[in-house]
Amino acid sequence: MAGLRIGSRDVSLSSAPFIVAEMSGNHNQSLDRALAIVEAAAEAGAHGLKLQTYTPDTLTLDVDHDAFRVASKDMPWTGRHLYDLYREAMTPWEWHAPLFKRARDLGMIPLSTPFDDTAVDLLEDLGSDVYKIASFENNHLPLLRRVAATGKPVLMSTGMATLGELDLAVRTLREAGCRDLVLLKCTSTYPATPENTNILTIPHMRELFGCEVGLSDHTHGIGVAVASVALGATVIEKHFTLCRADGGVDSSFSMEPEEMKALVTETERAWQALGHVSYGPTAAEMESRSYRRSLYIVRDCPAGHVLTGDDVRIVRPGHGLEPVAFDDVIGLVLPRGARRGDPVTFDLFRSA
Description:
The protein is an alpha/beta fold. It folds into 2 domains: 4-54 and 90-274, TIM Barrel; 283-349, Type Iii Antifreeze Protein Isoform Hplc 12 (Alpha-Beta Complex). The protein is built from 11 helices and 14 strands. The strands form 4 sheets. Strands 5-4-3-10-9-8-7-6 form an 8-stranded parallel sheet. Strands 1-2 form a two-stranded antiparallel sheet. Strands 11-13 form a two-stranded antiparallel ribbon. Strand 3, helix 1 and strand 4 (48-53) form a beta-alpha-beta unit. Helix 1 runs parallel beside helix 10 (257-274), helix 6 runs parallel beside helix 7 and helix 9 (223-230) runs parallel beside helix 10. It is elongated. The relative contact order is 0.12.
């Protein structure tokens, strides 16, 4: 699998994970705060900055029925009317251009999750390098076709999708023109728990769909994300805010700047640690080999002495014969004798 390229960055097992900071609704309807989030994400080392592009009318209906309220007691929005929630969380469309520009100026790749065709049109006008399909939209086949038709790489979260639904979504994207796809293992609960994350699915998806695979992570902390890198995740997406105490629709399961900085650092370390299948000392270990155990003379022995088990010990450092030779040297004659602290080498048994 050759991987792919998003903007200026390679996304593959040969590159450190692509870390995306998800702003979502954490701007709290302040453009100044939104710009500060972009700057904090860049300072923390994130490679991508993600928005969401929708209006409440492109997501739901302004209908005050129970079905249009969040019923789950495990979500931070319990009881909220969907239309009001999305109106509070939406990123105003006129903010997209300055936010994209600020991200690019700071060396990040801006991207967004569109929720309808008009959102895709806006993002195309902004020159988006990549698109994100949200878990709740991976069954929206017309949207998938519209996004795929741009020819840009697509990140798609897999949350809630059965294997059959996921297969249909992937085929829909590919048949509509998507050549570069990254599936993001995702658990669509907010927050998610580690035991419900099932990241062993990551290598299975990679093999099954023949594409790059990453993680859209709603758990607290960085442990799940770091572990996912060991399983082949090449993209990590986490919600991001300036300070959870500031509140906001997504703040309770979002990372703060120091946590994002740790995520960037530790996922890169995890990737570096993967290396390749290797046995024997690395180049960096060669010097350490001299401190392994080996055979040493432990008392002065005169010329002609026959070595016994009391004359030789297996100790550090490692300048003598390997410990495996212990039984072989017992009973040998020392032609020139030896002193306490001499390494047992072949030279001890050669005549002068």
